[in-house]
Specification:
single chain, mainly alpha, ABC transporter involved in vitamin B12 uptake, BtuC, two-stranded antiparallel ribbon, 4 strands, 2% strand, transmembrane, LivM-like, membrane
Length: 331
């Protein structure tokens, strides 16, 4: 951390950031055009699948906050998706259908869970951190399986979607879609502000050399735990959206397989870029839908694609676009 950047290296970093923000803005514009396109094609399926894309984009971006900038590989992050989905189910069973209250409930539970489990997990490193987050995620998974009042392993169907400040989202896929898009844009702006703040620079420094950062007066544990909690809370928002999109909740939302899928989305899009995981979520889900329609063995082809991507573009789709010059910001 004491080394000084050369002039070319110092100049490239702001251009990369500007290019990634520009790429995110382009993605948001394309997302905004999906409902009119679906209306023109008279196919509401695209709005439903688009809402799912946006929700997973939020979750992947949240995971990138700790994986890409804090080097914390959480293999239990899908637990926070589950907290968001069950916040909708439990509150709905008591007649509370307001989306903002469901989001706040999901955030509150996720913050508490992340605080407790993060405080324990962050005392480990490397593969031990991966395994302990996996263990905590599975504990949450089996806890919700045991909730027979909400369907247990079979899941729980929602009687209606949520409302937002009195506006009924039931049967309005376009309304839910645009609410999700607004959340994605707002959360991207928040994450971008975090990673480019003093907090984010310290977190990145801890990723590079925690011993040196501690020697200059920073406490790595506090910064990492804070980032861990923020990431879990953002992921729970994606869970609230997924519950409303599917009108169904299940412990399957929080299985370790789902955590692995989130990591794949981050790696596919580009670790430590924020915009990359958004594109990675869209790419992964598009490949899942497309290859699944062609063959029941689609996971084999998806795996081959991922291997090729890692071999030829280790920085994912973001690295590929930066090589071609499509994500270079102005100097």
């Amino acid at each position: 951390m004491t080394e000084t950047l050369t002039a070319p290296a110092a100049g490239r970093a702001p251009r990369r950031i500007a290019g990634r923000v520009k790429a995110a803005a382009c993605l948001f514009v394309l997302f905004a055009l999906m409902p009119p396109l679906a209306a023109a094609l008279d196919d509401p399926f695209w709005i439903l699948i688009g809402t799912r894309f946006l929700a997973y984009a939020i979750a992947a971006m949240a995971l990138d906050l700790i994986l890409g900038y804090g080097a914390m590989v959480s293999f239990g992050h899908a637990a926070y998706l589950g907290f968001g989905t069950y916040a909708v189910a439990i509150l709905s069973s008591y007649g509370i259908h307001d989306l903002s209250l469901q989001i706040l409930a999901g955030i509150a539970v996720s913050a508490l869970f992340a605080l407790v489990t993060g405080a324990i997990s962050l005392r480990t490193r490397g593969v031990y951190f991966i395994m302990i987050t996996l263990a905590f995620g599975q504990m949450a998974f089996f806890f919700f399986i045991s909730l027979s009042a909400y369907g247990g392993d079979d899941g729980y169907g929602l009687t209606q979607r949520s409302s937002l400040f009195g506006f009924d989202l039931t049967g309005r896929d376009g309304a839910l879609y645009y609410v999700t898009l607004a959340l994605l844009i707002g959360l991207f702006a928040l994450c971008h502000r975090i990673v480019n703040s003093r907090f984010g620079r310290v977190l990145t420094g801890i990723r590079e050399n925690p011993v040196r950062m501690e020697a200059v007066g920073f406490a790595p544990f506090r910064y990492q735990l804070t980032a861990f909690i923020i990431s879990g809370c953002i992921t729970s928002i994606a869970g609230v959206i997924l519950a409303n999109q599917a009108q169904f909740v299940s412990p399957a939302f929080m299985s370790w397989h789902r955590s692995g899928e989130l990591i794949v989305m981050v790696v596919l899009g580009g670790v430590g870029t924020l915009a990359g995981p958004i594109a990675g979520a869209v790419a992964a889900l598009t490949l899942e839908e497309g290859l699944g329609a062609l063959s029941e063995h689609w996971k084999l082809f998806f795996g081959l694609f991922l291997v090729l991507m890692v071999l030829f573009s280790p920085r994912g789709l973001t690295g590929l676009l930066e090589k071609t010059g499509l994500m270079r910001g102005k100097s």
